[in-house]
Structure formats: C-alpha cells, structure tokens
Amino acid sequence: MMEIRCSYLVESLVFLLFWLKCEGKETEFKDVTCGSLIKLLNTRHSVRLHSHDVKYGSGSGQQSVTGVESADDGNSYWQIRGKPDHPCRRGTAIKCGQAIRFTHQKTGRNLHTHHFNSPLSNHQEVSAFGENGEGDDLDVWKVECDGIHWERDDEVRIKHVGTNVFLSVTGEQYGPPIRGQREVHGMHSPNQHNWWQVMEGVFIQPSQDPFHHSAHHTEL
Question: What is the 3-state secondary structure (H, E, C) of 125-143?
C-alpha cells in the first residue's frame, strides 16, 4: 500500500510541476489524451465538474461530486487514466468508446457511480471514490463521441460502463456548506442535460511525457 501511495504522490507532484510550467500555453494537438489534466463543462448548465473533500450526508456517504460556475476553481481538474487492468500510455489519443477513469487531481479519488439515489433529484448518485487513485470497477466510464478519437472541441456524453447511466446535471442547487453548487448525477436517458465539453487543461503529447522513457514508470 505504501509503494502505491508513494508512486501516486511522486507522479502527481511531477505532473503538477509540468502543469505549472505549461499552463496557459496553446497547443495544436486536438485530441484528448491519456494523462491529460482537464476541466469538463456541462454545456446545458454552464458548470464544471467538481469535487472536494466534502462527503454526502446521505446515500453512500462518499465524497461528493458537484458542478460549479467558476472557471478558476482548482478542485475542478480531473486526470484521464485507463482501466485498472488496462492502463493507457500517457499522450495516446483517447478513442471514442474507450473505457477510462477520471481521477480528481486534488483528492486522488475516482469519478464513480452506483445504485444510490442522489440527494436532491433522486437520480443516481455520482461520487468520488477510492484512495490514491485506486477504487473499483464502478470507476470506469466511456466517452460517446463521433469519429475515431475524442477531440477537445467535441460535445460528448460520458456513460458509466457498469450501470449504463450518463453523467448529467439538471440544475438542482445545494445549500450550506456547498451553497450554489449543482448536483451531478446519473441519468439513464441521453438528453440535453448530459452534454460535456473539455475546457481548461493540460493535454499531454508523447514527446511531452516526463515518464515516457522511464523504465521504472508505474502507470497511473
């Protein structure tokens, strides 16, 4: 357990330094890639996918996932990773329909859903789960997009592999301690509430991968 934790923290720190160096610089690389650190905007409600070390008071009691209007909140960064048994190489383009995980950069927990009701809308609860980037098979999602690869300008749907719900926002707002943040939940039907687009982020290319040539690289 200590080896996994140290590996995760070391890679996160190096990645953070790389992000600080590259933040704000434009890239011509159009695809969303494995290892990239991104913010996702729900285009219907104009909120970014967000999490924080605040647990649900009902349902699973796991770390809550919400939507926030602010574009500057550091708790809205998610790292794209492969499945636990099928890691993706940093910098490789994510294919439409590929099974991936979204790991919250600040807390190291994965975007997750399961058969609990969400607290406001009674749709399916979406949480952040796991420790140091490792959770279970309910952390796996796939991106529904046109074409071969997920491109940064695409509006996409994000579908949960285990329960077949779409990552969605319908506008319900929380009170204290997270007043004004929107509920994020899973819905079974594809509709206008489950369109997402990549906004701010760092998009890793193979030539930029600080671990690409390391023989001791442990895939996140």
Answer: EEEEECECCECCHHHCEEE
H or E segment and range at residue 171: strand 166-173
What is the distance between the alpha carbons of residues 13 and 10, in angstroms, rounded to a whole number? 5
Q: Give residue-wise pLDDT tens across range 132-189.
A: 999 899 999 999 999 999 999 999 999 999 999 999 999 999 999 899 999 999 999 9
120-125 long-range contacts (CB < 8 A, ≥24 apart) are: 120/172, 120/173, 120/174, 120/183, 121/170, 121/172, 121/183, 121/185, 123/165, 123/168, 123/170, 123/185, 123/186, 123/187, 124/163, 124/165, 124/185, 124/186, 124/187, 125/56, 125/59, 125/60, 125/185, 125/186
Whether this prediction's pTM lies above 0.85 is answered by no
Q: What is the spatial distance between Cα 79 and Cα 97, in angstroms, rounded to a whole number?
A: 17
Asked if residue 216 belongs to a domain, the reply is no
Strands 196-202 and 37-42: antiparallel
Write the CATH number for 92.
2.80.10.50
In order of 8, 15, 59, 130, the CA distances from 62 in angstroms are 21, 26, 8, 9
Two tokens, residue 101:
């995980």
Q: Which of 87, 64, 69, 63 is nearest to 11 (CA)?
A: 87
**How many domains does one find in the chain?**
1
Domain range spanning residue 66? 2-208
